[in-house]
Structures are given as C-alpha cells and as structure tokens.
Amino acid sequence: MLRLQRGRRAGYHNYSVKEQMLLCTVAAERKPLGRDMWEEVALEYNSRKARSWLERDFDSLRRKFRNLYGKPKPTGNNDGLPPKLRPIALALEVQHAIEMRGGLILLTTASTEAKTTLTCYGTSPTS
Q: DSSP H helical segments within 4-114, as ranges?
C-alpha cells in the first residue's frame, strides 16, 4: 500500500529575519512587476545572500514576499518595531511602491471599507 506523506519535505529551512530583510531590500531596488523581474530579484538575492543561507528560486521569493505584505501592518512607527516585524512593514512599503510603479491605485471608501482597484494606463496630468 502506497502511503502519502503530508507537510514539508525533510530538511526544509524557514526564512530568517535577515533573509526576509534582504528579500525586501532587493525587491525595493528592483520593484518587480512580472516574472522576468522576479527572476532578476532571485539572481540578485542569491548573489548577495550569506553562504550559510539556502539558494532560493524566484517562485519561493515571490511567494514569501506576497506572504509578508499580506500580513496586517504592525502598529507603531517602523523605527520602534521589534526585528521580527520589520520585514512586514518594509514589505508593505515596497508593495506600495511596486503598485505605484505599475499604475495600480487602491481606493478605500470610509463608509463601506470596500476596496476598489483602478488601473491607470499612461495618463499624464498635462494631456
């Protein structure tokens, strides 16, 4: 009888806080919009990582980044945050910059707290 195992593969290592900070730093520099740009982030991340860290592929890095900015914003200012929460705050800032670069605007109405997403295509204030 074939028995399926659940969970992670053996020897899997979580991202450390330093790895998360490096990921956010590289993402802030590149502001990746698509797959090709996430591959550039992976190349840069793997070239700057410490020797003891695992090499990560772009899919893993993108998934981790999405997980970070999907978490609720930590309370307080970013300077007084504990080290464990700093990558979350940085990821939220970087994601906002990525959305601004891509022309994505997220609007929230105060009455319903419903979110509406608008995409701007090359409009300029002078035209």
A: 17-30, 35-48, 58-69, 86-102
φ/ψ of 32, rounded to 5, equals -70, 135
pTM score, two decimals?
A: 0.73
Q: Which residues of the chain have pLDDT under 70?
A: 1-5, 7-9, 11, 104-127
Contact 50, 28 (CB under 8 A): no
The pLDDT score that the predictor gives to residue 107 is: 57
CA–CA distance, 121 with 26 (Å, rounded to integer): 26
User: What is the C-alpha separation between 92 and 11, in angstroms, rounded?
Assistant: 30
Q: Which residues pair with 117 in a beta bridge?
A: 106
The neighbouring-strand residues paired with 115 are: 108
CB 68 within 8 A of CB 88: yes
The vertex-45 CA angle with 41 and 46, nearest 5°, equals 120
